[in-house]
Amino acid sequence: MRTRYVLLAVGVALLVLLPAYGGNYLVRFGTFLCMYAALALGWNVIGGVTGYPSFATAAFFGAGAYAGALLQVAHAPMPLAWVGAVVFVAAAATVVGFMILRLRGHYFAVGSIALVEVARLVASSWSDLTGGGMGLNVPILPGGPEYAGMVFLYSMFAVAAAAFAVGLWIEHGKLGFALRCIQQNEDAADMVGVNTTACKIAAFVLSAVFAGAAGAIYASWTAYLDPSDAFSILLTLKVPVMAMLGGAGTVLGPIVGVVVFQAMEELLWSNFLEIHHAILGLMIVGLIFFLPGGLLSLGARRRMPARATSREVPAE
Amino acid sequence: MSELQILVNGLVLGSLYACMAVGFSLVWGVLNVINMLHGSFIVLGAYISFFLFRHAGVHPFVSVPIAAAVLFALGYALQRGAINRVVARPVLTTLTLTFGLDMLAYNLMILAFSATPVRIILDLGRVEAAGVIVPVDRLAAMLLALLLTAVLYAVMRGSKIGRAIVAVRMDRDAATLMGIQVERIYAVTFALGALMAGAAGALLALIFPISPTMSGQYLGKVFIVCVLGGLGNVPGALAGGFALGLIEAFAGVYLGPQNAMTMGYVLMLLLLLVRPTGLMGRKGYE
């Protein structure tokens, strides 16, 4: 266990010092790493720990992106716009969570995908506000590309670090205990006095908040938004896949998944843009067939074989 | 546009939507798998009809059974080779797998067919009655869609394999004890779902332009139909299909076409809140 945290610390140090030794390309790569780490860690709270198959990541990412971008267009300073976006996403996730967390299993999954679709359709058709399919230009951060790169890297890093801290707190805290109870048997958890509704909404909002923050920063970073980019169906699938690649339900799993996934994407797939979706599809098939517990379970299986298999709970 | 005309347009659309969704509903109900590939199955069926028409001059009505047969074989192979390995796992696993397979299918279709929309132009004239105009190709597609759905209903109720599928849906363990080979039933069910998607796609090709990029849109419509109508029965899919067709037709006229699809989703989410099993959800697929 200790080696893992040492490795993590080395990785973080490499990331934080990136602007000192890496070029713009590496800084950009590092920013993406942090963004996906925030998203995957956020997803892990509802999808991994609580066991609700959420594919709504892109809905909150896009909502945060649009909220932040619109605030910036209305001349709010960038940090204030980000805070506003997070508040907006938290409020939206509370309302939406109250509605769709009553669903379970398959219906929840379909409902969460529908959220992304509704959000994209609304953003496309409400062109007075969002610019519709024409997209929305966000003011560019002055100070040159090196400075902007650094600002966005550290901002994304802060979100990822916060998501990691929340992940640790959930793993050891009372809320996490309640969420794991819900994952194992929601009715039983309810019966022994866990306030399942409140806990599920808390988990949902926590996961949405990180997606919203990452989205808001992303909008300022790319300085341009359109509905299919903000509410991307690819993003909504990639994030759970990254978390599962490392090991859903653990704190380090999503980070490992993000690093491996992004490294593969950067080194292997970026040369094959035409078959990008196909490679992702094949990777998912491989992951589901051959690595159901994620990369971290490979080490765990050697030491404690019983636990690695007990994670697989059969469907109802 | 007269109200009666909008109603008829909605019914034409609705029967096609029912035919599109009934296979998805069957797979969800029996295998407990959300098949994200369903939209691609529909598009593939449409392209089979298109290519047969363009290169071999096959009449699109004749292509419907051909597309259905090809998709049946593909569905059977996919279930046996891939889906069956995870069929008992949680929804996150099965959904992610079919989602991934759909990415693969989408990419292959883009490479093979390109994203540019194509269409079959088949002017068969139109019928006019009581001020309502319906092109003959649309009318034919509607009737064929209803016929196919009725055939599926008859198969479920009357044939040995249909009864076995219903039995597996009602109680898998009891069905096993009665000597039903559950794995085979799963494969046949998935293949039947693909068959209905392929046939529906071939019918859609008669009316609408087709492109691989539309698979996500069709999948979304299928979701809505299944939730509106409830899973697990053919009448439910019909009710959901007609409901969505009418919603889209009326919302398209009164709220603008860009909001028609949004209305469908919003109603679906609202309905999920009130009745988490849809309008006609019940156990046992008939």
Describe, in short, the structure shown.
With 316 residues, chain A is mostly helical. Chain A is built from 17 helices and two strands.
Walk me through what this model shows.
The complex is a heterodimer of chains A (316) and B (286). Chain A has a single domain, classed as ABC transporter involved in vitamin B12 uptake, BtuC (Orthogonal Bundle). With 316 residues, chain A is an all-alpha fold. In chain A, 51% of the residues are buried. A two-stranded antiparallel ribbon of chain A has the order 1-2. Chain B is mostly helical and 286 residues long. Chain B has a domain of 195 residues. Chain B contains eleven helices and two strands. In chain B, strands 1-2 form a two-stranded antiparallel ribbon. In chain B, a hairpin with a 2-residue loop joins strand 1 and strand 2. In chain B, helix 3 runs antiparallel to helix 8. The relative contact order of chain B is 0.21. Classes of the chains: A mainly alpha (316), B mainly alpha (286). At the A-B interface, helix 6, helix 13 and helix 15 of A face helix 4, helix 9 and helix 11 of B.
